[in-house]
TrEMBL record:
Cofactor note: Binds 1 [2Fe-2S] cluster.
Species of provenance: Neosynechococcus sphagnicola sy1
Alphabetically ordered keywords of this record: 2Fe-2S, Homeobox, Iron, Iron-sulfur, Metal-binding
The protein's name in its UniProt record: Bidirectional hydrogenase complex protein HoxE
Family from the record: Belongs to the complex I 24 kDa subunit family.
């Protein structure tokens, strides 16, 4: 017996008339509401909305017939997804085992002090978001960080601070 797939998701009242939700519905339809397309659908959602707010996650969960906990788990596992509006620039520090052993906690401390924010926050001016990743897959160049998509390895706290200072001005 085959499980019936929904034709369209009507999960939230904010979806009515919002072209971003319509684009998201089209993406889910393109993937035939297949739960295995969760990551692709989340990418489309973040592209459309800028970040993955609660209503969007609920909409995706209902549209793909998945538990909200699974959608949330995937959205919080991958560093490319964010649940909060991001700054103009993003600085992602790897906290994986190799990076941790090589001093990523010192990078985090230096960056938090320089930016005046904690990990997971965005500066008051909206310029820089400081984020953590469980692993960037750059273990050979630990400690690693990614600024606006560019990976930098073998970072010292001074290197990291110098890189974000450039972003602030």
């Amino acid at each position: 017996m085959t499980k019936a797939k929904p034709k369209a998701s009507t999960s939230t009242s904010c979806a009515i008339g919002d072209p971003r939700f319509k684009a998201l519905d089209m993406a889910m339809k393109r993937y035939q509401h297949n739960p295995d397309a969760l990551i692709e659908v989340l990418h489309k959602a973040q592209e459309s909305f800028g970040y993955l707010e609660a209503d969007v996650l609920t909409h995706v969960a209902r549209g793909l017939q998945l538990p909200l906990s699974r959608v949330y788990g995937v959205a919080t596992f991958y560093h490319l997804f964010t649940l909060k509006p991001s700054g103009v620039h993003t600085c992602v520090v790897c906290l994986g085992t190799a990076c941790h052993v090589k001093g990523s906690s010192k990078l985090v401390a230096a960056l938090e002090a320089e930016l005046g924010i904690q990990m997971g926050e965005t500066t008051v001016d909206g310029q820089v978001s400081l984020l953590a990743a469980r692993c960037l897959g750059a273990c050979g160049i630990a400690p690693a960080m990614v600024i606006d998509g560019a990976v930098s390895g073998k970072q010292t706290p001074k290197d990291a601070v110098d890189k974000v200072r450039v972003l602030k001005f």
